[in-house]
Amino acid sequence: MAAYTPFSLLFPRAEMVVHQGGVGTVHQALRGGRPQLVVPHLGDQYDNAVRVARMGCGATLARGRYRAETVAGVLAGLLDDPVTAVRAAEAAGVVGAEDGAGVAAGLISELVG
């Protein structure tokens, strides 16, 4: 058992990622290229969940509907849907090619310099 495993190593090896929809977790799940089930709890998580579903990379489920039978059905549907797998893999390519930190550093340097 590992005391800590970074999402960047874990998610690409997962069959599915189930999470609350925080922006960092959404990013890591997109980068991992796996379908997602987002169960938002507060704040921007609801918007992030809708965006994941709209992209075709997963689905969202209201926290109040989180029951074993419901979750099992949603997960089975996502895993059986080849379009979701393709969309998730495509998103991984796009997100993986981004250099957000490098772009931000360049823009800041332009402003300061």
In brief, what are we looking at here?
The protein is mainly α. It is 59% helix and 8% strand. It has six helices and three strands, in the order H-E-H-E-H-E-H-H-H.
List the helices and strands and how they pair.
Blueprint: H1 7-10, E1 17-19, H2 23-32, E2 36-38, H3 45-55, E3 58-60, H4 68-80, H5 82-97, H6 100-112
Parallel strand pairs: 1-2, 2-3
Helix pairs in contact: 2-5
Distinctive features:
113 residues; mainly alpha; Rossmann fold; 3-stranded parallel sheet; 6 helices; 3 strands
Description:
The protein has six helices and three strands; from the N terminus they run αβαβαβααα. It is globular and about 55 Å long. It has one domain: Rossmann fold. Helices cover 59% and strands 8% of the residues. It is mainly alpha-helical. The model has no long low-confidence stretch (mean pLDDT 94).
Task: Please count the helical segments.
Answer: 6
Question: What is the fold named in CATH at topology level?
Answer: Rossmann fold
Mean pLDDT across residues: 94
Fraction of residues in helices? 55-70%
Helix/strand/pairing category: mainly alpha
Strand order, main sheet: write it out. 1-2-3
Largest sheet: 3 strands, parallel
CATH superfamily placement: Glycogen Phosphorylase B
Report, as a whole number of angstroms, the end-to-end distance. Answer: 48 Å
CATH architecture, by name, is: 3-Layer(aba) Sandwich
Order of helices and strands: HEHEHEHHH
Tell me, briefly, the overall form. globular
Low-confidence segments: none
The number of strands is: 3
Rg over CA atoms, rounded to whole Å, is 16 Å
Proportion of strand residues: 5-15%
CATH first level: Alpha Beta
Q: Provide the number of structural domains.
A: 1
